[in-house]
Design a protein that fits this description.
Layout: E1 23-26, E2 47-52, E3 55-56, H1 63-69, E4 77-78, E5 87-88, E6 92-95, H2 102-107, E7 111-123, E8 129-141, E9 144-149, E10 152-157, H3 158-164, E11 165-168, E12 173-181, E13 184-192, E14 195-197, E15 201-203
Parallel strand pairs: 6-13
Antiparallel strand pairs: 1-2, 1-6, 2-3, 4-5, 7-8, 8-9, 8-10, 10-15, 11-14, 12-13
């Protein structure tokens, strides 16, 4: 954020997502893979509300970032080992659960895709552009799942897709992983509930 590498660096307090979207980076979750007691700059970890009802409310901020920007530190200064300098890193980062059921989401779709299982992909942090493969996908027509799809790739940008989310499920699921960056690899958790995205580019080899 201090280097203005994020597409959201100058949008604090603005609506960057649909009002149904709230997201956090939380280092305090009991027994979660990305949780820590203190960060690598000696600050106690915390729950950081990144997005609340669609509005950008916080960044992940380390000590140097706080000095450069004036934003308060968030206990996000992390590094793999003493060989690296700490920098702002995620802990347990996820979209918070909403109020909708998956069946209700499917039933509200005239024509679309149910992406049941996601695969790998890539993201360009500077622009927010991404593409992700869907490992298991189904065609939805008139509110019913009708046929499996051979392949599908979801293509969009972070800023655009956040505003296209119209429904957020109750079924939050988290997954452990490792995040690699300039301060090495650190354990993290990511997750989200089921989401209904009204408009997104879908590529693939289906007729």
């Amino acid at each position: 954020m201090a280097k203005q590498a994020s597409v959201f660096h100058d949008q604090m307090g603005e609506m960057i997502a649909s009002p149904v979207v709230s997201a956090v980076d939380d280092g305090t979750l009991a027994n979660a893979w990305g949780s820590i007691n203190i960060d690598d700059e000696g600050m106690e970890t915390q729950h950081t509300q990144l997005i609340k009802d669609g509005k950008l409310t916080a960044f992940m901020v380390d000590h140097m970032g706080s000095l450069k920007t004036g934003y308060a530190r968030t206990g996000s200064g992390r590094r793999e080992s003493y060989k690296f300098a700490p920098t702002s890193r995620m802990r347990n980062t996820f979209i918070e659960p909403g109020n909708d059921d998956l069946d209700k989401m499917i039933g509200s779709m005239e024509r679309g895709i149910y992406a049941k299982k996601m695969g790998g992909g890539s993201v360009q942090p500077g622009t927010g552009e991404f593409n992700f493969a869907v490992q298991e996908a189904y065609l939805v027509e008139d509110g019913q799942i009708t046929a499996p799809l051979k392949s599908a790739t979801l293509i969009s940008t972070g800023p655009k897709v956040l505003k296209e989310i119209s429904m957020v499920g109750k079924d939050l699921a988290l997954a452990a992983g490792m995040c690699g960056s300039v301060s090495g690899a650190v354990p993290t958790t990511v997750g989200q509930p089921a989401l209904k995205v009204d408009n997104i580019l879908v590529g693939g080899g289906n007729a």
